[in-house]
Amino acid sequence: MRATARTLPGMIAPGLYASWKDVPTEGWAWPHFSARELSCKCAGRYCQGSYFHQPDFLDALERLRDAAGALWINSGHRCDLHNAAQGGAPLSQHKRIAADISLVGHDPVSLARAAVTAGFTGLGFGRTFLHIDRRARRTAFHYPGGKVAWTQRFGFDPVPAFKASGHLNGA
Asked: pLDDT, tens digit, for every residue of 56-86?
């Protein structure tokens, strides 16, 4: 049985480590991802590489990797100040844990569908990336430039389709 965010030592708040270096490596159950890879990428400007640990997110990320192949994570957790500097929403899922996955090397439509199958409930469609998270309520949105690109890729706008049905199989 995996430890939960509430039981892991070294946290400064439930699920939150001040640095990815504080995350215990013993018992790490996600072979294709590391705390460092998913930690804040502010390069020490605002934090020490903070990391938010959420096992169910990592389980879903492994399922996505199994389905889609190697994933390049542009952005994972963000500390509050880095999120603001990046123009992130005040309640951004990145302030806990989310991932922006590069589309390079992937069929974007297949990647998005695999993300839904893997259990992601928040989808953000960017021009060159797919945002994924596991928020409590299903939602989808476009980043600037994303609507045209993804509508062309799917042949329909995936945002209302996902919001209405939880699937990306058509309008």
From this structure: 999 999 999 999 999 999 999 999 999 999 9
Sequence letter at residue 67: A
Q: What is the CA radius of gyration of the chain?
A: 16
| pTM exceeds cut of 0.90 | yes
Q: What letter represents residue 106's amino acid?
A: H
Distance separating alpha carbons of residues 26 and 85, to the nearest angstrom: 34
Residue showing tokens 């990815």: 20
**Chain centre to alpha carbon of residue 67:** 16
Q: Are 67 and 39 in contact (CB under 8 A)?
A: no
Residue 10: the pLDDT is 74
User: Does residue 9 or residue 145 have the better pLDDT?
Assistant: 145
What does the alpha-carbon distance between residue 109 and residue 154 come to, in Å, rounded to a whole number?
Answer: 6
Q: For residue 57, give the nearest of 129, 7, 2, 125 by alpha carbon.
A: 2
- Which pair of tokens denotes residue 53? 């640990």
Judge whether 84 and 108 are in contact, CB under 8 Å: no
